Amino acid sequence: RLQREIRVWQHLDHPNVLPLYGVYFGTGFGELPALVSPWCKNGDICTFLRGRKGESAILSLKLRQILEGLKYLHECEPEVIHGDLKGANILISDTYDVQLCDFGFASMHADEEGSLNFQSSSTKGTWRWMAPELLANDDARHTTASDMWAFGCVVVEVLSGKVPYHDKRTDQMVIIAIAHGETPFRPATFIGEPWEVALEAKVWELALDCWASEPDDRPPVKPVLRRLKHLRANFL
């Protein structure tokens, strides 16, 4: 997994993707080499947004930056599938920009003529953010569509500060819920300015579209990003 993470991460260069500076093989970090990247003192997006509930302009901007980073990954040649998109893997830089990180479950897909095809191990990511097709089939592969499902789950975190399916105490309960077609429920409606309530309702609609049960029915990242930009232009 570490070798795969290095092979994927070293090729990435985008403002909304955490850069990899290098690999440290010295002592003091255990048996495995250490991956060197910038220190993000603001923590992950959930930590950063804690206490900012209702600041809809900030929330929608961060979601837009997440989509910008995801769009870059999906449009790479070969395309890069993140494979474990969640709040804990979305850091906030010193300039307060989103940076996607942790490519340990990432995969690179080449086209039919290409040779690159790195896939994750039997562990496929984190249950609460995992698309149903990954649970239904042991041989299922991460795709851009499964990344979009995970983005919908990140919307839950950004709007509520809670993990998706937070009412389910165990992973087993989450797996059963997903198997029965349940999607994360909407966080409590924010009581604020009417435009803020309306904006969050529209953002929630984006999440619902990302949770289509059939992967082919989920929108790609580009139109979702376009819709979010349109929302920000209309509401802000």
From TrEMBL:
List the SUPFAM superfamilies: Protein kinase-like (PK-like)
The segment(s) forming the Protein kinase domain are 1-236
Q: Which superkingdom heads the taxonomic lineage of this protein's source?
A: Eukaryota
Q: Which organism is it from?
A: Exidia glandulosa HHB12029
Native organism taxonomy: Eukaryota, Fungi, Dikarya, Basidiomycota, Agaricomycotina
GO MF terms listed in the record are: ATP binding; protein serine/threonine kinase activity
Signal sequence interval, chain numbering: none
Full protein name: Kinase-like protein
Does the entry feature the keyword Electron transport, yes or no? no
Alphabetical list of PANTHER family matching this protein: SERINE/THREONINE-PROTEIN KINASE TNNI3K-RELATED
Write out the entry's keywords from A to Z: Kinase, Transferase
The record's annotation in Pfam families points to: Pkinase (PF00069)
